Hints:
Blueprint: H1 12-20, H2 28-35, E1 44-47, H3 54-67, E2 72-77, H4 80-94, E3 100-103, E4 119-123, H5 124-132, E5 141-146, H6 158-171, E6 176-181, H7 187-194, E7 197-200, E8 211-214, E9 217-220
Parallel strand pairs: 1-6, 1-7, 2-4, 2-5, 3-4, 5-6
Antiparallel strand pairs: 8-9
Helix pairs in contact: 5-6
Amino acid sequence: MNLSEIQSKVPKEFYAVLEKYSITELRPAQAKAMKAGLLEGNNLLVCTPTASGKTLVAEIAALHSILNRKGKAIYIVPLKALASEKYREFKEKYGHLMKIALSMGDIDSADPFLKEYDLIIATSEKMDSLIRHHAPWLRDIYVVIVDEIHLLNDADRGPTLEVLLTLLRRLLKNIQIIGLSATIGNPKELAAWLDAKLVQDDWRPVKLHQGVYLGDEVEFVD
């Protein structure tokens, strides 16, 4: 799908950023997400290989909501290091279009200052804490993005993430949930639980080859 095909569907400021970063066409997963109702507020579970363009799907949903004044966007990640990485990345790309905050510290605070921010990157533990502290600005959320959503099956982080998503869906009836993962063992079941459309694709920017390494030689499997 050529980028120009979505020009009339996304905010012009966002489209200008995509052009600045020399994006001329959407990757297969991104095009499938658009056709699955990404801009219509549909919940999506995007299950595609690493570096296939999942993050841009989330960015499209977030920017579409924020710049059209529908509501805030929350980007939930499992690790502080990943939260910091996403914060730097989004700040560089979109800092001139919206206010971006990083929330991953004190779990005993409702962080009232976040009321003034449009895009909030938070760890799942911090987001769970914000809900339990009844942060009043939570009602302004429209898009919830969950990176590495396959961790729902993780023995340590899974329960927190499951409760977090359950509470968000109960508190905010009209939110759009975008789940992202490269590895999900039960994508259809998870999509059904999220009431989401499943977006799957096996395209990747670099083809993988399988082989056996022995004695300083690699024999690849055809």
